[in-house]
Each structure stands twice: as C-alpha cells, then as structure tokens.
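Milestone M4 deliverable, item 7.
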Amino acid sequence: MAIASDTSRRARARALAVKVPQITLVFWVLKLITTGMGESMSDYLAHHSIPIGGAVGILGFSFAMWLQFRTPEYRAPVYWFAVMMVAIFGTMGADVLHVVMNIPYTVTTPFFAIAVAVIFLAWYRVEGTLSIHSINTPRRELFYWVAVLATFALGTAAGDLAAYTLNLGFWPAALLFAAVMAVPAIGWAGGVLNPVFAFWFAYIVTRPLGASIADGLGKPIAGGLGLGDGLVSGIAFVAFVGLVAWVTVTRRDVQRPAVAGSRPPHRAHPHMPESIGVQAQPAEN
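Output delivered:
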C-alpha cells in the first residue's frame, strides 16, 4: 500500500512538473543572447545560402520542438535549444514577409501584434491563465510555444521598423527598446502592473532590443560596427553555451513542482514577484 501511494505521488509530481525555467536574471540574459543570436545567425545563413538557411531553420525548429515536447520536465539544454531555434525560425519567417514578399514593416509589425494578441486571448479563454508557472500540461505548453514564436516574429518586425523604416539606426533603436523594457520592470517592482502582464510585455521587447544590439555589432550600415554576422553569431553562441551549461549544473532556474491539492504560498502583497527578475515561488496564476 505504501509503495502504491509513493508511486502515485511520484506520478502526480511528474504530471505537474513545470516545463519552463524560473524567471531569474540569467533568464533575461539568455533571452537577450538568443534574440541577438537568432537575428545574426538568420541573416548570416540567408546571405550565404537561402536553401541551406531555410533547411536549418525549418528542420532545426521542428527537431527542437519535438525534443522539448517529449521531455517530461524542464531541462535547460533542451528548453534553451528550443528558444534558440524559435529565434532563428521566427526571424526567418518575419524576414520572408518583408524581403521575399515585399510587405513593408508598417504592415508586418501590426499584423504580428494582432497575431500575438489573438494567441494570448485564445490561451486565456481556454486555460484561464497566461502564467508561465502554469505550463504543466501539453496544451498549455503548446499555447506557450506558439505565443513565443509569435513574439519573436513581432519583435523582429518591430526592430526593423524602428531601425530602417523610421531611420533610427541600430543603436538609437536599442536605446529606445531598452527604455521601453524598463517600463514593465519598473511597473512590476512598484506593484502597479500585473506580474504576468509585465512578464510578457518585457518578453516581447527583449526581441527587438537583442536584435538591434546584434545588428549594431554586425552590420556595416545604419551606424553598425560592421563586425560581421558570422562573428557576432559565434560570440553569442559561445556565451549562450556557457550560460546554459551553468544553469544546467547549478539547477538554479528549476521551478519547484506544485503539489496537487496544495494552496499557493502566501504573498504579503498582491503584486509580489511572480514572473520577472528575481526568483519567486510558483503561484496559481
């Protein structure tokens, strides 16, 4: 009887294992690195061979998603490999609409913004929450990755809109998006923004911020330093591998699984951290 009870508890723990990392400072650093790496790698592959670039983007993205969905719990190498391939694939998808189909950024940016809004609305109507602490079922995980892909495409279009169409250049665009990203951080810290809203607000803005920095380092135009997309991709990849190895070994970004039937931990303030910047305990929403 005791063996059966113990087996049942282990099964519930596996079923409730959250499939995404805890939100700490290293999460945001890795997110920025993957956004910049996705931008520079996508451009590097596209400029050298569109067929090879397309194959890497599509096959790499498909394999990463297959691997992530078959993994029963959060594992840093698997999760961040998926984020990296989403960054590359999402960048390619947004660029195809502009470069190949000649659709201006003034059209693609609001299009992707509407797509992101529709995905979030559908996710909330079905699941009742958008919190990443609740990504513990296949359906919620599917909503999560569709939303992530859409936010990467939106960020790509918005970043290029600012740098090219609005003629800001890469570094002024990076400063602009850094200032915009500070809004949800300050709002969350001050307790005036819902933590889930603040998280996704910041998550979307990291994409054009990271891409603007990568373009500023790699491109020889619009105020860029001209280091080359290949070099920038390589540097970002080395930093990416190092940080993923660190969180894999330390496991500091692993969320504790919720216990079935338990109540969420008490929070002294209704806007205590649930989603941004510092380690927090999992909450219901």
